[in-house]
Amino acid sequence: MMLIENRNYLRLHNRSLLEVLKKTEDETDDHIQCESARSGKPTLKIDKGSGFHYVHSKYDPEKEGAQLISRIESLEQCDHIIFIGSGLGYAILALAKAFPQIKISIFEPDPQVLLQLFSYQRLDKLSSQIGFITCNEKKLEDYIFVTAQKKQDRFKFYILPFYEREYSGRVKELINTLNNGIRLKNNNVETNFVFQQRWILNVLKNFPVILRTPNILLDIGSEVFKGKPVVLVAAGPSLNFEWENLRSIKKNGLAYIFSVGSAINALIKHDIYPDAVCTYDPQEKNAQVVQIIVDKQIKQIPLIFGSSVGYETLENYPGPMAHMMISEDTFSPQVLRTTTGVEVPSIMDQPSIAIITLELLARLQVGSIILVGQNLGFLNNQFYADGISYESRSTELNETEKQSTLTIESVDGDKIQTNDSFLSMHRQMEAIVNAISPQEVINTTKGGAAIKGTTFVPLEDLIHDRLSQKVVVHRWEQAENHYDRVTLNKRMNNLVTCKEDFKLEMGEWQKSLIQFGKIMKKGDEQQINSALTKVDKLFHRIQKNHFFKTLIAPMIRVQMDHIRQIFQVVRFEKNISKKAESVLHEFRKIYQDIVTNYTVIGPVFDQLEERVLH
What we know:
By secondary structure, this protein is α/β, with parallel strands linked by helices. The chain is built from 23 helices and 18 strands. The strands form four sheets. The chain has a nine-stranded parallel sheet. A four-stranded parallel sheet has the order 6-5-4-7. The chain has a three-stranded antiparallel sheet with strand order 1-2-3, with helices on one face. β11, α13 (312-315) and β12 form a beta-alpha-beta unit. α3 (61-70) crosses α4, α6 (137-150) packs parallel to α8 (168-211) and α22 runs antiparallel to α23. The longest helix is centred in the N-terminal third of the chain and has 44 residues, at 168-211. The protein is flat, with a radius of gyration of 29 Å.
């Protein structure tokens, strides 16, 4: 029977698991038995169909648990350990005692074992260390994915030897799934670090273009796209099968054609001009995507750009433009409102323009979204459709890439080759398709990956059965935005004032840090504590500054996350000198990061101020 302390703990922290264990208590099941080990501690054995097997030592399970933990390498570099299999928790308790700073999560596949754990060990005493406990794989996956996205925890998995032996296939699959989620999180952190400065720099440089172009979600009449089919053309190799179908759709106006990524190069080379090109990548090299339009001076293809797109993309674009706000743009929503007082909507930043465009089309309330060339894998060892080439890579897979390919289910139930990058995109694609449901998404990509939530229909069948009339409105992009210039001027003036305050606050903080360093050398704990409080208060004051929050903080988000995590640990340090030394070290680093980024963004903001306010 569950210990009352554990029952109370679950009632407060994990009620769904408590309900599972209550039902388990009512079940009769003799495949699990507890008995006393030679040491007097309880041990556990499980009948796997071929007789009972011991989960722990028959002699001293507590000592065995401590030995298992002592063999795990690099625990000092771990923030969060996930136990695969709990048994009676001896290894878990040993780790909690030896490493009280490490977060612990537990996945136990057998609810009967979990019930025994809660019947013999008081886990309520570990409440500050426990992250999550479950016997449901999906719930564990969701928890790890959410935790990985929110924090920069360094995860480690530990599988009890019994579970590694008895559940090897299931455990291997679970670990792969969890590692993919953590890898996605690490990629996101890396992306943030690489792009965090560019996002804000781009927005400020793009802002004059934003002010003279329509917002596609706010300023285009609903009659343009609502209820009408849109073909979303990506650059996958299956695009090669669809030239005549796309030419027919374009000629007869049967659906809007939106091009994403490099597909525009292949479309133009086949004399098919889409109804829009969508782009959002913040990198300088993104300008290459539309270079063919610039080189040919094609003026009739509208560009729908994300507000944080690489500013070089817009500089020489010859055609009309419309914009959409991207969630990484923290500036525009702060200064813009419509003349009717409506807040400016944003599209969530995503790993690819195809996924962003899916959300955009759903928000526009289009009819069917028709995917073309969305392979999410390779066809006949090809990366891209014909007509698309890059200096940095060949259109075809090289030998190393061929050897490292993975497989995924295709639209016809067979298997296709893919890689980690496409698998990540595939997961995101399925997530957004699910999120925009009941929006109809049809996948016409012959030989492409099956995408859950979509229906596969060959494009020629779709044209024959459903695309029977002209729906396209030409020059749809000819509209004006409805941003309130009075509000814009007022908010820009406020940012200018806050910028001056920010410069003064940074000067005060710099002086206090210098003084703090001098006091540290004297070693007077009372003075150190007083100086520590002062520098901390000044830092919090800077963080509240509107200019800092809007423009500087987003440029150093990774560093800010890092310092928050460091301070979560430092606040428990009893030795005031050690604590002060850590704080001073981190404050000096973040101070320099702030100064460096202000040096970049300050002049760009000043130029924008001149254009907007004068």
